[in-house]
Amino acid sequence: MSEPRQVTGWVSNVKILGKIAFIEVIDDLSLTPITIVVKKETNSELWELVSKVKLGSALKIEGKEPQQVVSKKGRELHAEEVQILAEPQDLLPIDVTGKTPASFDDYINYRYLALRLPKIRAVFVARSIIFQEVRNFLTSRGFLEVNTPKIVKAGAEGGATLFSVDYFGEKAFLAQSPQLYKQMLMCGVPRVFEVGPFFRAEKFSTTRHLNEGWGLDVEMGFINDVNDVLSLLEELVTHVNKRLVESMGDQLKSLGFNIIEDMKQFPRVTYDEALKILNSNGFDLKWGEDFDPKAEKFLGEYFQQQGTPAYFITEYPWDSKPFYIMRNGPQKSYAFDLDIRGIEIASGGQREHRYSELYRNLVDKGLDPNDFKFYLDAFKYGMPPHGGFGLGLDRLVMVLLGLQNIREAVLFPRDRFRLVP
Ligand code: ATP
Ligand code: MG
Question: Does any ligand 1 atom lie closer than 6 A to the CB of residue 317?
Fold first, then answer.
């Protein structure tokens, strides 16, 4: 037996076999319960207490780890003292043993209880690793982590999809993206990133859209061309996935997650090439149209068959992209998307850094340059060539874990029908 140690957690299963009580407790951030063992012949008082303990109770246990573990789940503690800190007052709305599945909505409504289930807890442990590794990678590459306002006067791409707020009598909006701010910063810092919330007011009904999400925004100055941005994003996603697989890949697999064990180099196809692939496979898309979810899904399967779940689509038509993107000839642009498993994860590109071209782009998109004066001014004082991307972190969690619905990747998702809890 080892030195005594303390375990705190919640009872997820109770088994009494003859005169031995086995209480499974989900402790710390572990993804398998620890089995608390109490033998009647060693301590009959304690045995009486634990054999009546209610499923879902919060416990504090003192005990010793045995030399030989007999429980199948691998961790065991022979209890010497057990304190029942709290017992359920009501019927548990979720079966914490995990035997009877709850409804999709109840896993969200009672998220705190669902987090005791290894399969749901694993999503949020993975999410935390993904967020940490994003920060580790970018910080190690000399990016400054910044925070930009979430209550703003102007949107990045027009006003149609913004939530409005009353700002002391003035109309303001919840930020849809840090786009304008991160670009302005390029006139004073060479590389920045931000991890923050974004808000979109569209009435989505899909499995990959939320009304409040968490995004990663990256902007890098002094680039040679858009390929610098593509390479950084590829290295970032590969790093994050590799660290995720190293730290919990085996556990994720045994819990049934369809993870991406090995990320090969991301193919880079142009919009024109992607269009050709689609139209030679039964689609009838015109040049200039954005790819709809059906087309995205098809491309996802097409690249999956080649063993590359992640791929870039580059050189989008300028008409389909926002004003701040740099043109590439009369019709194309230096905009790209990163798709993984047929779902758009990031959009980015090289930006227009020349004042007069940027001004013209705004006018060409039908926007009023006067509304963007605070932003345009930054382009007058030595703005270097720059580029970057916006990446949906909730979507990244979703695709790296192979989840079917983005709501599974968010603790308390915000969609059209969900404002509580
Ligand atoms: P989509 O075409 O899928 O609606 P988008 O092109 O409008 O996305 P961007 O403006 O390019 O989105 O935003 C950058 C990234 O943020 C997207 O690639 C995506 O990963 C994520 N994202 C955008 N909108 C949402 C949303 N409503 N819910 C969750 N993630 C989103
Ligand atoms: Mg996009």
Answer: no
